[in-house]
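Researcher: Please translate sequence to structure tokens.
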Amino acid sequence: MTQLKRAIVTGATSGIGSAIVVAFSDAGYEVLAVARRADRLAKLAETPNIQTLVADVRNLDSLTEAIHNFEPDVLVNNAGVGHGIDGLTGLEPGSVQEAIDINVTAPVQLTAAAIPGMRARGHGHIVNIGSIAGLHTLVSSLYGATKSAIHIFSQNLRCELLGSGLRVTEICPGRVTTEFYQSAQGDRERLDAMNKTGIRELMPADIADAVLYAVSAPAHVNVATIELLPTDQAVGGVKAKSSAE
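Model: Translation complete:
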């Protein structure tokens, strides 16, 4: 078993984030749950071993201070937005920038803040919550681009940290039953249509189990990438459609 026992989780009040926080707490970790919604954080704070911080992941100053004070063994970059999951058409410029800031810039900045302390302690684990949209061709040009950035960031970071004892894991879920589509920015009709699949989707606890599996592996084992899909979902195929129609 590893000696990892202190975890920071961003986006802690979302379905996946909340499930990860509770899973860590149940496993005996001390957890710092970070999110913007104070009311939901207050409910998490009632659980043993959970501290909370009301913060936006784009507020680097406050989060860097929290990282330095809490000294996490594990950083879970879970906070994210689904802006543009349905395509670029009708997306406001501000939503484009927000997707890049939250999905890409924040995880990179927070990871950079956490690594020095992890190096000094000789152990640590960065867990990035990606998406199958970052691995496969879908209609999600913007969202897929942000998750592709996290994918190559995770791959390159693993090479950068080689020999340090630090590990990097990327979790890439498919369809998960959360508030993801409701909170995404884009064409509401398209988003609502995408949200209705009729399949048995993954649950947030399924993703939390994958995270806990990765961080609980022996110290010499780095679970690099986990692609997690419902049994009723598959990715692949080629589309063709005439532009003359």
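Researcher: Any highlights?
Model: Residues 36 and 56 are 6 Å apart (CA to CA).
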